[in-house]
Design a protein that fits this description.
The chain has 4 helices and no strands. The protein is elongated and about 50 Å long. It is mostly helical and 119 residues long.
């Protein structure tokens, strides 16, 4: 069931939008950190960060505008966040990577919950 833009967002949806935007910002920060590292930043990690950053922003936007594709987008976003968390975990000694992995995991969990919900 699709909600109209006039219908208030559920608390769960609001929390998911916030988690997506927080994850988006963290991925952007981490990309900047990777670029400063230079050669150490692996392309696989950069790709995962870029995908996750784009997906989380788009997912939040789609939920806010009550897109009928929100449920499917949340499922895709959870996958992108899982992949990004895994990529970040490949550098366990880097505190920025660990913060990013944590934000990605939180967002993935919330998106999975929303993907299972009727919006």
């Amino acid at each position: 069931m699709t909600q109209s833009a006039a219908t208030p967002m559920s608390k769960e949806m609001q929390d998911c939008v916030e988690a997506c935007m927080s994850c988006h910002s963290m991925c952007e920060e981490t990309m900047s950190s990777c670029l400063q590292m230079g050669g150490q930043a692996q392309m696989q990690i950069m790709r995962a960060l870029m995908d996750c950053s784009e997906m989380t922003r788009m997912c939040a936007d789609m939920m806010v505008r009550r897109s009928p594709l929100s449920t499917e987008m949340c499922a895709m976003c959870a996958r992108a966040c899982d992949m990004c968390a895994e990529a970040c975990m490949s550098m366990p000694d880097d505190p920025q990577m660990m913060r990013c992995a944590e934000a990605c995991r939180r967002c993935a969990d919330m998106c999975r919950t929303m993907a299972g919900a009727t919006m």
